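For reproducibility, we list the full input for the magnesium ion complex.
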Amino acid sequence: MTSSGADTNFSNEQMLGFYRDMLRIRRVEEQLGKDSLAGNLPGAVHLYIGQEAVGVGICSQLRDDDWIASNHRGHGHFLAKGGDTKLLVAEVYGRKTGICRGHGGSMHVADFSKGIIGANGIVGAGISITTGAAWAAQLDGNGAVGVAFFGDGAANQGVLCEALNVSTLWKLPVIFVCENNGFSEFSPYSTVTSGSIADRAKPYGAAHETIDGNDLIEVWQCAARAIRRARDGKGPTLIEARTYRHSGHVVGEHTFLSGTYRSEEEVEQKKAGDPIPAFAKRILEAGQASQADLDRIDAEITAEVAEAVAFAEESPYPDPADQGAGYMFA
Amino acid sequence: MTSSGADTNFSNEQMLGFYRDMLRIRRVEEQLGKDSLAGNLPGAVHLYIGQEAVGVGICSQLRDDDWIASNHRGHGHFLAKGGDTKLLVAEVYGRKTGICRGHGGSMHVADFSKGIIGANGIVGAGISITTGAAWAAQLDGNGAVGVAFFGDGAANQGVLCEALNVSTLWKLPVIFVCENNGFSEFSPYSTVTSGSIADRAKPYGAAHETIDGNDLIEVWQCAARAIRRARDGKGPTLIEARTYRHSGHVVGEHTFLSGTYRSEEEVEQKKAGDPIPAFAKRILEAGQASQADLDRIDAEITAEVAEAVAFAEESPYPDPADQGAGYMFA
Amino acid sequence: MAKKRMIQAINETLDSEMAKDPKIVLFGEDVEISLFGDTVGLKDKHGAHRVRNMPISETVMSGMAVGAAAAGYKVVCHMMFGNFMYTGFDSIANQASKLRYMTAGQISLPIVYMSVFGGGRSAAAQHSDAMHPMFMNLGGIKVALPATPADAAGLLRASIHDPNPVVFLQAAGRGGESGEVPDGEVIFELGKAATVHDGDDVTMVAIGAMVRPALRAAKRLAEDGIGVDLIDPRTMVPLDTEAILSSVRRTGRLVVVDEARDLCSAASHVAAVCADQCFEALKAPIKRVTVPDLAMPYSPPLEKALLPNEGSISATVRDLLGKPAGVEA
Amino acid sequence: MAKKRMIQAINETLDSEMAKDPKIVLFGEDVEISLFGDTVGLKDKHGAHRVRNMPISETVMSGMAVGAAAAGYKVVCHMMFGNFMYTGFDSIANQASKLRYMTAGQISLPIVYMSVFGGGRSAAAQHSDAMHPMFMNLGGIKVALPATPADAAGLLRASIHDPNPVVFLQAAGRGGESGEVPDGEVIFELGKAATVHDGDDVTMVAIGAMVRPALRAAKRLAEDGIGVDLIDPRTMVPLDTEAILSSVRRTGRLVVVDEARDLCSAASHVAAVCADQCFEALKAPIKRVTVPDLAMPYSPPLEKALLPNEGSISATVRDLLGKPAGVEA
Ligand SMILES: Cc1ncc(C[n+]2csc(CCOP(=O)(O)OP(=O)(O)O)c2C)c(N)n1
Ligand SMILES: Cc1ncc(C[n+]2csc(CCOP(=O)(O)OP(=O)(O)O)c2C)c(N)n1
Ligand SMILES: [Mg+2]
Ligand SMILES: [Mg+2]
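The corresponding predicted structure, in tokenized form, follows.
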């Protein structure tokens, strides 16, 4: 399916909001990528660059009491769902002021007050957790939904099928969002994944759509349908959003990998599908904003990132005395 | 699909062989069921009665170097693949002369010399093991195949989808045989299983068929296609064989369950589909044997079972000195 | 006080807690009809939305428990047999045990993962492991092992109230045993050991199902003038080390009885704690009565030979004290 | 002898074994390009049919290893990080560890489940567990923990030759460390400990990555006249209890250094064995230097504070001997 001009439904403000939200993720990630390469971050960092339209297209229409769970590539989802830039950056810097007080790091950023169950270091784990949160939402009866973000590689974990089965049976308000970026770590899609991922919903009778994950409007519209279905008690949807990961699987991989798993040409060609310039073009062509507006947003975001970095850098590392039984057991 | 008279291809001898093999399972199981109810068996027993056409229809065309793995309901597969009646009965009796010298019991009967990797106490576990054995067969290049038998309940374990994915990609000579007997322990199919099981092969592009598991000839023909596909290097097949479990999930369940999960009427009605009398009728109608022939086979089988029971009863229990490091580590 | 079977004590506790707190939900394979009887009748009383049968899908099940708990529910996740927890292990070991810590205490996860465990019923290797040591080593999971119907009621209630993940392991085949259960809402603090037999000669720590043969041994040894101070820790996480240490400081001797395989058993840990913290008080080697490092066999004589029993427990104590029994030894 | 990185020692061992034995196969996620470098180049040398990338499907992967081994292959199953073994845990805990026993020795299962494990690199809770105690308790799995490149080569070769399932755990972040590796086909018997430092005052058992800080501590303590007999068990299953016991019988003191969480750690087990079997020789409490019962945190100061290090090891020894250090204490 295509978005076929339906974006005219969005106000100028909304469109700029989407743009801002995508750009925030991009700029934060660029910063963290640089920091990681420079050796300034304690642990590994997996960048979301190139996939922003998925997280923003979906999370922009979620409520604070809707749940999301994410994967190792989770900064984008955190920000898209309203997580704070400073708290994110400080966490990845391993500081006491981070959202998890430095205990979680890049792969575990979470903010339960915003419905962000968190990134996850275990591929596929967010799928079952979200299914459970969706069961809770169903019990609450308040119309909240759960959204699990995961990759094409994660779709090969059997838990996806288990979750599709039980959520269809129980009509759980859950949306499984597979961001198919073409790679399972360093393995190209077709070497490890048979058939189409969206099709995996079919045997269970679950709703499913394959969309252009680089087209924010298409993502938004598909998500709107899935969210409606979920809030109306009609059960799960599996969305396969086709996108591309611009950066490596993990920042710095070229320094230790013995070979390559994708060509420069492929990367360059795929980068042409970058969702952010495409969206800027759409805004400009629709006359919904001027280049100056976009530049202003970029400047604001750049300042926001700089501020977050400064905040993180000024923040102390957590004191070992600060950890312990209080966090382990309630 | 139906067998549409194609059974005329089988010689009288073959037809009687099928009958004998099904009846052997039936009589052994009846015996073990009685023994278990009488409290004469150490552990739990899950009967295969009603499903014999599946095991026999498939295993009768497997070679000794083809692999099978089974589940908790595994006596039938053991016998169908050429496992010895005495060794089986003695094992379930917990005797030293059993196929596993009393160490395994009903849920773990295995005979590697016959390609029987074994029954399994973990629902779904045989699926991955068989996939690995099929990989070995592929490496051996000798045309051997692996067959995993499991239930409709087991089809809800995500491992099935993982196995379908990898075996399709690697074109592994493996056949996944789901014996859909309508129940996942005490849960009727539709309460825990969404959609059709055979369909679960589709998203991966794996071959799949749904058949009447009570019709031995239909099972045989379907298995023949799947085995051919596997031996020819064309990859996996998922077979959903619709059948019915005549007995309870576990022998004696009526003594401890607080309620019922299926009606007497349903059981009686379904028993009308019993594969063994249906096959007898077919043989007789086709004039491939007389009732006297069938009676003689029954008498022989009955004697075989009695002999196995006597063998088991006369056998000593294993000596605790007989277990230990030698079996734990090679 | 009333005599109840353990299964009944568990069932009544689940029932009364669910009646009081609408946030408690229970799910698992066949919890509606209930294989063991521990969850029987709960669906009719508390509703199909709160008591739900699961497909056979332990992986998603154990993770759903985490998600539902994170979203505000008190979740009882019935895993049937402890060995099936291996199938759904990731969400227990990587998620439930770590999520609160990784997020610096943003949430708590009130989950009870319950199952039967251990041997004694010829259920063979894949239905008979005693896997509490594995959970003990995870760090973020409490571990409760009731020895009696009263313990089952008191520990289960505490486990449900506890804001943290608790693995509640009920000895397989002990559900039918009867015992006195106090009237009313019996609750036992997690981390408080019980002294079930007094004595001055040797401290014995017995875990879960091992309390019963240990108690029989203690009573029999008492007849021969050997005083066993028998401690049931009731929970292994948290572990009431103080109760154990103060007993050992008094008796100077320790025997630990555990149904786990020996290597890295709970018995090993209790022994290690005492060899460290009350070494000066020790008068004799610390003995473990555990299961050999084998898989559990099917045939009764084989299984029986592996499991600790009154005889092996008594013999260990007598050996330790240099007082061989007349007949038994 | 040549200086090699641990990763290189592992890679060369895999390479030379695969060259000799066509029955050896290797599979896992991205083993072709190799995240850690330990399997790099093997596909090109030994063929795409013997070195295969897996989808991210640990459940089927760990079980495929069982099936392929049962069907006659020697299987190296690369699980990447130890924490991912939880995802594929059923086939390790319920199948690989039990299948031979359940079938009364009908088959053997030559499988090496390999992964990195442990902390020290800010990989956070889900990539940093030290889970060897869990495997030790399973009963049917050997557990190898190389401390040096030479150990890695010698233990991996023995693990591949061994007809049983072996979990081969390589300390995360230690792959880059160099060490002397003997020329030729170095092989170390599984179950044979190495004494890596001699001394008469205290026995120290250090496991896996802990050998290095323990050795540093031992050398430093030697300068102050404190003699540490440092034993690296190399494998925890089988465990060379004789080597440990005979050392403790000589020194009378024991400190165990383990990167596992304390509760039911390997350290606990070693302590328990000695508290039982060489009690009479003990002159002092048995000390454990382990990781607190927490999840591994991300931020470096937090993680560093949890892991045993030269300082905490030395301090434990000095305390035990009542010889506080001048500066360090
Ligand atoms: C259970 C588990 N297995 C393996 C890994 C290692 N790993 C981390 S990310 C990754 C690739 C994930 O691919 P995909 O799901 O497509 O997400 P993407 O990285 O492309 O966003 C792998 C194999 C892991 N973290 N967890
Ligand atoms: C992993 C696991 N979960 C649960 C069980 C308990 N259990 C044993 S058999 C069974 C039902 C299996 O149903 P199905 O696969 O349809 O086989 P059937 O019994 O109908 O032959 C269950 C739930 C188990 N043995 N293993
Ligand atoms: Mg991907
Ligand atoms: Mg069934």
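Chain D is about 35% helix and 20% strand. Chain D has a mean pLDDT of 96. Both points were considered when choosing residues for closer inspection.
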